[in-house]
């Protein structure tokens, strides 16, 4: 008999995770199904126990439960420890293990674009929230020593750097300074919610000072091309949108649950077809 998987979040009706996981199950002939579950914050503890009882083999966790679910799990994988948040739960014979596949998903996706080894790139991260932290610490874990952080609230960027568990030479910059000094960076990663649907005309900084060879990356995938990426494209820069991260984080979760590699290109195509 097949297994049941899912995603818990609130709101959840617009999640594209069921589309891409169910496509992967069908393509690989795996008799399993992935469903979106709307879980309010007040229902989280009950939901986790219910899913354990129902032997749901694995599920993704999204806003607003990524941090608050931690006390209800039995163990945290190092990826969840690094991020301080969980986006994937694996049920191993009733034992619930929290992982975070966002950072590694982003890294895998970015590496498809890079012209030189990851560690040789000078990187600027825009934003200092949960998403920025997960990416920053993952890249630092893999040996990136040249990552700076810019954020509207400078102290939050400083705190992120201070809390980094890896050796680093990171500097916190104001948005204004970052914009002026953008020419120093090989990769610029936009992690804030600025530009997220429906505020599709907003961007945190301009990329007009970026160097010609720079990769301009945005983790937002709805819209597929944010105002930030549109400006970069008009300037002739290489752009990298959030679809890659979304598909790769799902793929790593899928691999943890099934031990099999899902069809990445087909999954990305589903997202592009729906949102593009
Ligand atoms: P997430 O977990 O998705 O990263 P978060 O923890 O709420 O979300 O972080 C949001 C990030 O977007 C922060 O870096 C925030 O900047 P502040 O630390 O100054 O709040 C940034 N952000 C949100 N709205 C913004 C805006 N209008 N302009 C610039 N930055 C903004």
TrEMBL record:
Q: Which EC number(s) are documented for this chain?
A: 1.1.1.25
Q: Which Gene3D superfamilies match?
A: Leucine Dehydrogenase, chain A, domain 1, NAD(P)-binding Rossmann-like Domain
Q: In which family does this protein belong, per the annotation?
A: Belongs to the shikimate dehydrogenase family.
Please give the name of this protein. Answer: Shikimate dehydrogenase (NADP(+))
List residues binding shikimate. 15-17, 62, 87, 102, 221, 249
Known NCBIfam families for this protein? aroE
Say if the entry is tagged with keyword Oxidoreductase.
Answer: yes
Q: What residues bind NADP(+), as annotated? A: 127-131, 219, 242
HAMAP family for the chain: Shikimate_DH_AroE (MF_00222)
Give the pathway.
Answer: Metabolic intermediate biosynthesis; chorismate biosynthesis; chorismate from D-erythrose 4-phosphate and phosphoenolpyruvate: step 4/7
Q: Which GO terms describe its molecular function?
A: shikimate 3-dehydrogenase (NADP+) activity
Q: Which UniProt keywords apply?
A: Amino-acid biosynthesis, Aromatic amino acid biosynthesis, NADP, Oxidoreductase
**EC top class named in words:** oxidoreductase
Active site per the UniProt annotation: 66 (proton acceptor)
Identify the residues that the record assigns to the Shikimate dehydrogenase substrate binding N-terminal domain, covering every copy. 7-89
InterPro entries assigned to the protein according to its UniProt record, in alphabetical order? Aminoacid_DH-like_N_sf, NAD(P)-bd_dom_sf, SDH_C, Shikimate_DH, Shikimate_DH-bd_N, Shikimate_DH_fam, Shikm_DH/Glu-tRNA_Rdtase
- Describe its assembly: Homodimer.
Reaction equation(s) it catalyzes: shikimate + NADP(+) = 3-dehydroshikimate + NADPH + H(+)
Q: What gene is behind this protein?
A: aroE
Q: Keyword Oxidoreductase, does the record have it?
A: yes
Could you name the domain of life of the organism this protein comes from? Answer: Bacteria
What the protein does? Answer: Involved in the biosynthesis of the chorismate, which leads to the biosynthesis of aromatic amino acids. Catalyzes the reversible NADPH linked reduction of 3-dehydroshikimate (DHSA) to yield shikimate (SA).
The SDH C-terminal domain covers 242-271
The record's Pfam families line, in alphabetical order, gives: SDH_C (PF18317), Shikimate_DH (PF01488), Shikimate_dh_N (PF08501)
**Where is the Quinate/shikimate 5-dehydrogenase/glutamyl-tRNA reductase domain positioned along the sequence?**
112-195
